[in-house]
Every structure is written in C-alpha cells, then in structure tokens.
Amino acid sequence: MTIVGLTSTEVAAQVAAGQVNTSSARSSRSVGDILRGNIFTLFNGLLLSLATIVIVIDRSPFNALFGIVMVVNSGIGIFQEMKAKRLLDRLAILHAPRARVLRDGETREIAVEEVVLGDALLLELGDQVVADGEVVDSSELEIDESLLTGESDPVVKKQGDTVLSGSIVVAGAGAAQVTAVGEASYAAKVATHAKRFQRAHSELLASTNTVLKWISWMLAIVGPVLVWGQLRLDTGQWRVAVIHATAAIVGMIPEGLVLLTSMAFMLATMTLARREVLVQQMPAVEGLARVDTLLLDKTGTLTEGVIQFEDLVGVEGEERDVIVRCLATMARRSKNPTNQAIIEALGEAAPFEVIGEVPFSSARKWSAVTTPQATWLLGAPEMLFAGRTQEPMFAQARGIAQEGKRVLVVMSAAQAPQEGVLPKERQARALVVLSESVRPDARQTLGYFAEQGVDIKVISGDSPLTVAAVARRVGLDVDQAFDARELPEDPMALAGVLAQYNVFGRVQPEQKRLIARCLQGQGRVVAMTGDGVNDAMALKDADIGIAMNSGATATKAVAELILLDNQFARLPKVLAEGRRVIANIERVANLFLIKNVYSLTLALAVTVASLTYPYLPSQMTVISALTIGVPAFFLALGPNTRIYRPGFLRRVLRFAIPVGFICAVAMMVVYAQARRAGLEVGQAGTSTSIALVMIGMWVLVCLARPLRGWKLGLIAACAGAYVAVLFIPVLSTRFGYNVHLLTLPAALIAGAAGALAVELIWSRTRALT
Q: What tens digit of pLDDT does each residue of 532-589 get?
C-alpha cells in the first residue's frame, strides 16, 4: 500500500491547533515543585512558628537563630535541586528518543514531541510506538503490548489494527497513521510507561519518613506537656518559660535529616551524570548498591556489541553466489546488528525478488523470505536443526560456536512457513559465521562485582556454546552453559537450576522475566543490563534496569539507569556511589536521632522533676550546629566504601537510642549538681552543654571511622568553635553561655564518662552487625 504522509502545510495547521505529541511528563521536577518541596515542609512550618514566637516574646534575634537553619536548609536544597534539574533537563534533551515520520513524501527523523495528529509514523524492529495510531501498512508487524496490557505474547498487527503508545515493535515493520497524541494517548491516560524523575522505592527514604512520623507524634504529645511544665514553675516569668520550652522543642526537630538525604541522592545523580551515567530515578543509585545479583546480556555488555561477518562455511562455487544473494536479500528486510554486518560484507550482491516473508523475532530466532524460486530460512542452528541434530552441518556449527563465535544456518525449502511454523522439508545450505569483540574492561568489571559479593549470571539468546566461550574469555568460571529451551517453568525447579548454573543460552524474552522474578522471590535484589528490544520487559521487572544508550528506544524508556557512552565499566562507579550514599546517610541519621532521643528524654525529665529546661534556643542552636549540622553535612558527602548491609533503621536505632539516653543522663547529673550548688539556669545550662558537646564529639569520632585527616580536622574545628563560643566574651554573651568553674570538673567528668560509654556501645553494636 502506498503511504501518504502529511504535507508541511498540514503539519503547521495541526501544530496551530495544538494537536502535538506533548504531555505533562517531565524529565525533572518543575521550579514550582522544587520551591514547594523545600520550603513548605512540616518542620519548616514548625520552626518558623517557633522563631516568630521567640522574636515576639523575647525581642532578640539571637534566641531565634535556629530559624536560620530553616533558611539555610531550604536554600541549599533549592540550589542543589535546581542545579540537578538543569543537568538532567540538558541530558534529557540531548538523549531524547526520536520518531520517524513520512512528510512531504520524505522520511524524516523528528523529536517525539514534534509528532502531530495524522502523521504517518514509520515503525521498525526495536521502536517504541510514540503515539496511538491505526496501522496503514504491515510487513509481518508484531507488537509487544505487555508494558501496557500485561499480555506477554506479541500481537500481529495488520492493516486497520490499532497500535498503542508505549508498545514495542518486536518483529517486522510497518506504518501507522497517528490518531491520538499527548495527553489523549493511551499510555498518557493509564500512566504505565516510564516516567522520569519518578521516585522509586528507597529503603533510606522509607526509613527516614518512618522516623519523621514517630517524631511528629511525639512532638504533638510531649510539646504541650513541656510548655505546661515550664509555665507552672513560675507564672510570673512566663516569657522565660516559653523561651526555654521552645529550646526543648527545637532540639526534638530533625531539621536537616530530610535535606541531607535528598541532597546526597541529588549530588550522586549529578556525579554519575558527569561520568556518562544518566539516572532516571534518583533512588536507583541506592538501589544498585543493594543489588546482590546482576543479570547480564552478552551482546553489548560483555562484548562490544559490534557484530562482524567472518565467513560463509559449507558452500563453494556457483552455489555460494546464490547463498550470498539470499543473505543480501534477507539482510535488507530489517535493521539489526546482524543484518548490518551481512550487508557490509555482502551488500553488493543483487537481491532476489521477495513474494513472502516471516520477519525475525527473538521468540522464533529465525526469519524467512520466499522468492519465486524457493523459500530461504536464516536463524539459530538449534532452532532450524530441531529434530535433525545428527546432520554433519549441525556438528560443524557446534564446533564453531565453542570458539565463542556466533553461527547462523541458511536453509532452503520448497514451501513457505505457515503461521510461523517451519516447513518440514528443508535443507541446510551454509553456515554464516559472525564474531564479536569482548570488551577490554569486561574481565576487570566482573572481577570487581565478584569481590563485592554480587552474583553474576549471563543470560543470552545466543547458543549456549557461544555464550559459555565468551563467559570464559571474560574470566567467569564456567563448565557449560544451560540451554534455556530446557528451563523449567515451575518456580522451585527453576530456583534449583539458577542455583547450579550462572550462564544461560537460547534464553527467550519471557524467560528473562521468569529468571528475574524467581530470583526476586528468593529475596534477591536483581539488576539487569540490556540493549535489545527483547530486554525491555525484563529490565522493567528487575529491581534496577540498566540500558545502553545505543540500545532500543523501548529498552531505554523503562530503564532506571542509562550508560550514555555504552561503557559497561561505568557500573562499578555507580555501585560505589550508591554505597557511599547509603553508608553516609546512616552516619548522619545517627547524629540526628541521638539528638531527638536526648532532647525528648531531657524534656520529660525536667518536667517530672519540676526544673527549668537548661538551654536557651541560642545555646541549642550552637550545640546542634557544631555536633550535628556542620559535621553531618561533610560526612554525608564524603567518601565511603563500606559494603551495603540490610537493616538500616534497626542499626541506627540500636546505636542512637542508648547513646541518646547516655547524653540525657549526663546532662541531668550535671544540671542537678549545678542547681544544688546555687547556679542560675544560664550557668547550669552552660555546664550541662559542656558534658553534652564532649559526648557529641566522641560520637563523631565513632561515626567518622575509619578516621582520616580531613575527618579529624572537621572534628577539631567543631570542638574549637565551641571552645571559642564559651570563652570569647562577645560570642558567649550573644549565645547566652556563662562558664562557672565550680561545676566545670563535674561537667568534664560526666562528659568523659559519657564518651567512654559511647565507645562501649559503639563496639557492641559493631560486633552485632
């Protein structure tokens, strides 16, 4: 059928009418979303309210300095997220998918957003359909709609059938006239295909949100009790009571924890982008760090992905010329790396006239063309020699495959295939030998993952003999590969096979999904790499999908990570970055939760004991900044090579709760002793803060291990800043500190004892993990 595309005038009319393929999906959050997400938070609102109360009552900005933390936190978050947005948007434009349309009688490649209603959309193997349409031409076109409908079997599309945006061409070719674009398309309505900047599940974010919920409930209960307790001590000094109660509430707010968690993800995303890795979902950085099983496709991952024609075996003379013409004919029917290699080597041969065709598909692993003289078949020897493995050419094919080369067999038949079924009478005519170069960095990369405890499994559609040979060349210990045609569907039996074998050949696309799901059912965290259209569904099912930028559009659309320069060696950097983020956030989470525990415990203790809360808001600001805020910022962004271990929240609470209680006990001991000695609240609070800061500094020593020069310098700088606040008059006056020598020894002893207890708890918790 002759396809008639739109003219330039018709395209301009559709654009003017707004019938273009744009949608609300973005590669990153909008500026408004960034501002709202960083400014209008629960804890920002609480801090703003408390700061306003303090300024109105106390009329001094210094006791409201904790409000600066809110401004700085929001400012840093906005700045970093805007910086990340610009980078991600630029990468999204640079690597955006393209569509082929027929306009003014010419084939044009345009941005997906430029497709308009009525366009003639040209479809080939590996394309993702970018807009809904009606098929106007089909050359054995087969569409996989499983991402949209859940139907795993490809659907043959004939003229007049509907194709849906988000579906994938897995065989044949064709054209469709666009009938719905943008928000009116099927995929936009059901929102099922990949959306960038979508936040995937994250153990860190989930644990952090759980803690924030707990703290919110505690604030709602303890806050009013604390205010009432402070007011009843001296109703004549209600202003002072409110100021002290505010200090206690501020101490229970983890104002920087969410910021540092989000910022660590964003900075990791930006770091990886500079290393040619596009992170489409930020928590995917964390996800790869949790991966314990990596499923690798051979082609494009272990090998360069560039296929070269080597030889035509088993045929000579005039018959060879016929086979060469046959191969040239078949290779021109569709675009894929194998056909491209054949065209480059044999493309000058005159093609035969084609009167019938069965296009290649990953499920069949063969293709066919019918000419006036005969039907020619090209495909995997295991498929075309099915039931005929005793033939000499099949043994010859196996011998070549054992050398790590790809082998295809050419057969001829008098009859054409019927409904995808091979003709019974077919004759082997020649073997096509192809080769791929192994990536020079593959051995080193796989060695790194093995050292990190990641289980490697190679799953490929090629011959098991070829896959096993390539696996051995990259350093994997492989006796033999498992032929996936014998792979059981029963989950228990499949699990047994997966435990015994690490290399699989002749794997069907649906089997890749079964393998990923089976491993996930065993509690494994599975990542998968791929570049072909047959990898798309398995990448979607895996916990982390990793696509090559040279791969099919559909594969890149569903992946969490895209290797922009197609370098498999980038993955260790991604793994290391994810582990750095997780380990560092665990460090800083300890700091914030320790503060929450001791603030809550101290608030309840002084209320029960009918004592004035020992700190002013300005004093609490200094303590929080020097023992938590400043060191947490640097520790969250510093290097860390610790291997991921599950149980983030349990581990943090196991250390933070007892240490928080120790801090509270030390403070109460010093505070009670100072009050008995007749010291005023300001002096008693200063002595109490000395013990607290000493313990806090030792907490930093524990969490910063292994200690490096920059970490020791950071701790020394924070300790030195605190000493400066204590003894430089202008600073001590501004922040409400007043050192009294009478209780200084008690504060130092309590601080030292608390630090020793922290060390014991640290040693104990490390031994349990």
A: 666 777 888 898 989 888 776 667 777 888 888 888 888 888 888 888 888 888 888 8
Give dist(CA 186, CA 21) in Å, integer. 12
Give the count of beta carbons closer than 10 Å to the beta carbon of residue 513. Answer: 19
The whole model's pTM is what?
Answer: 0.69
Over residues 480-498, mean pLDDT: 91
693, 626 contact by CB (below 8 A): yes
Contact criterion met (CB below 8 Å) for 517 and 540:
no
Triad 158, 161, 167: Cα angle to 5° = 95
pLDDT tens across 42-72, in order?
767 777 877 787 777 766 676 676 677 677 7
Backbone angles phi, psi at 659, to 5 degrees: -65, -40
Handedness of CA 200, 201, 202, 207 (dihedral sign): positive
Residue 415 CB contacts under 8 Å (≥ 6 apart), including other chains: 375, 423, 425
Q: Is residue 297 flagged as an active site residue?
A: yes
Distance CA 320, CA 361 (A): 26
The amino acid at 159? Q
- Please tell me which residue in 58, 119, 144, 297 is annotated as part of the active site: 297
End-to-end CA distance of the chain: 68
Contact in structure between 462 and 505 (CB atoms under 8 Å): yes
Q: How many CA atoms lie within 13 A of 128 on its CB side?
A: 27
Question: Which residues have CB under 8 Å from 542's CB, separation 6+?
Answer: 295, 516, 526, 527, 528
Q: How confident is the model at residue 153 (pLDDT cuts 50, 70, 90)?
A: low
Residue 757 φ/ψ region, left for φ over 0, alpha for ψ in the -120 to 50 degree band, beta for the rest: alpha
> What's the token pair of residue 146?
């499983």
The answer to whether 577 and 271 are in contact (CB under 8 A) is yes
DSSP string, 437-471: EEPTTHHHHHHHHHHTTPEEEEE-SS-HHHHHHHH
Strand partners, 295: 457, 528
Confidence check: pLDDT of 197 > 50: no
